[in-house]
Amino acid sequence: MKKITIAIDGHSSCGKSTMAKDLAREIGYIYIDSGAMYRCCTLFCMQRGLVNPDGTIQTAELERLMPEIHVSFRFNAETGRPDAYLNGVCVEREIRTMEVSSHVSPVAAIPFVRAAMTAQQQAMGREGGIVMDGRDIGTAVFPHAELKIFVTASDEIRAQRRYDELVAKGEKPDFNAVLANLRERDHIDSTRAVAPLRQAEDALVLDNSHMTIPEQKQWLIDRYKERIED
Ligand code: DC
User: Fold this and answer.
1) How far is the CA of 230 from the centre of ligand 1 (A)?
2) Nearest to 204 by CA among 226, 230, 182, 229
3) I need a surface site. Which of 13, 38, 64, 124 has the fewest CB within 10 A?
4) Of 1-5, 50-54, 122-126, 203-207, which range is least confident?
5) Of all protein residues, whose CA lies closest to atom 6 belonging to ligand 1?
């Protein structure tokens, strides 16, 4: 059976990754979390002191160091999901902190960062058989993907999901700070000059505000089956 490319885009914390990972596992496709790649670049900036006190990034120095950033994924048999590695070191936990979340959108808006990550993502998807989630997958990375989904949910519901996730990891977040971070990221992601977050014209829209995870999973599997039967 022909292996297709599946692009899942949408707002921050709307459950894209959960849906994408579950679908990939179910149908035996590779899953790539493109947001994790921008998070790895952000962690690299923090580790190298490239984040200024006002939150801006030392772009000239980052551009010089860009060839030193290598992001990869390895399947974690315990969680059944891939972990992100920055230069060979597992950083899955570090890249999910609020600190990384608060710096990632400015880093992801830098054109040379996007060019480098987009090239890596396109190389990963060359053979098809991939589910990739992010903000610009159906518009910029794989504009010819056979199945494109655009996911969204209300701000408060997304913030509550992110808050619960952080609490489950032992962090003590402030709900209003989580909500503000999410709105700010959506704003930066949607208004940046290069590959902004937007719905591809041929994407199917899913508002999962009032759906359970099993319901979303089933909805996505049904869309996949429809597409491969076309
Ligand atoms: O999906 P996420 O929250 O882990 O993504 C982290 C950030 O990376 C998000 O603020 C936007 C950015 N991003 C992007 O610009 N393009 C992508 N394809 C994926 C994520």
Assistant:
1) 31
2) 226
3) 64
4) 1-5
5) 35
For residue 39, the SS3 value is helix
CA-atom Rg of the chain in angstroms: 17
Ligand 1, atom 1: nearest CA belongs to which residue?
Answer: 35
Q: Where are the domains of the chain?
A: 5-229
Closest ligand 1 atom, residue 105 Cα: 10
Question: Structure pTM?
Answer: 0.92
DSSP 8-state symbol, 207: E
The answer, yes or no, to whether any atom of ligand 1 lies below 6 A from the CB of 192, is no
Q: Does the Cβ of 4 fall within 6 Å of ligand 1? A: no
Q: Is 170 left (phi over 0), alpha (psi -120 to 50) or beta?
A: left
Task: Report the C-alpha gap between 100 and 44 in whole angstroms.
Answer: 10
CATH of the domain spanning 5-229: 3.40.50.300
Give dist(CA 148, CA 146) in Å, integer.
Answer: 7
- Which two tokens mark 165? 């996730």
69 Cβ partners below 8 Å, 6+ apart?
40, 41, 44, 86, 87, 116
pLDDT tens per residue across span 131-168: 999 999 999 999 999 999 999 999 999 999 999 988 99
For position 16, what pLDDT does the model report? 92
